[in-house]
Amino acid sequence: MMLQILETRPQFLILSVLLVLHAAALAAARGHVVDWFLVVLAMAGLVLLHASVNVLNDWHDYARTGIDLKVRRTPFSGGSGLLPAGRISAGGALRLGLGTLGAGCLIGLYLAWVAGPPLLVIGLVGALSVVFYTPWLTRIGFGEVFAGLSLGVLPVVGTYFLLTGRLDTAAWVSGIPAGCLTYNLLLLNEFPDAEADIAGARRHMVVLLGKRKAARLYTVVELAAYVSLLAGVGAGVLHPWALLGLGGALFACKAIAVALREYDSFEGIIPGMGVNVASVLGTNALMAAGYGIAALAR
Q: What does CATH list as the number for 2-296?
């Protein structure tokens, strides 16, 4: 059982929990009563889908393309390493990936039945992203975009709709920083894998643009995350307490500096990947905390 848990890359699944908390706190800040049973179910469903895409990615990169036999792993990229090491079988990984996908979809269907058709559409986009992410989306330059949608914007919007029955502008605007940062989480983690990914016919943005231009794209998207947060508050769409999320920019600035300086260095970019993770998790956690303060102050 422990190996199966490790294969899901549990250290990254906290992002799913924080996205749901982000949306729940936003709903509370806007005066809605939060059903915490639904929040927990939403967390479970999103965590299962997130785990599924991680496992199916590992299975595909080992059993189908052999990328994981060529890649140099880091603490943040290159898969779990369990399949190449023979600690879990390809069949076992496939069953785990499909099982978590099925369980996540069942929870999603129940929540859609509770909340209504808009959540079904959002959940369908997420489920299809899991299925097509590795074999298709990463080969046509859309992997980062759908990661940003499915583990950024849409969980915030979907959870907010689940709790409020509304597709408010605030939910979409609040989801933009989350989407940008998840896009960049994936983008920066692709730098050390680029050569192995080329051999496996993967065509993500680092491969398509080259590392130097991809580092510049990373910088633009990272800045866009925090500019969108400032703009949302400035326009009166988001509560001023959302600005607490700017605390994540402290990590983002470090990540940008490393990306622009060390984009072509395998060892040099690893510290930037670490603070990049901190910027994603920190910004979502701090936005959730800000909304929580706003809710308590109502």
A: 1.10.600
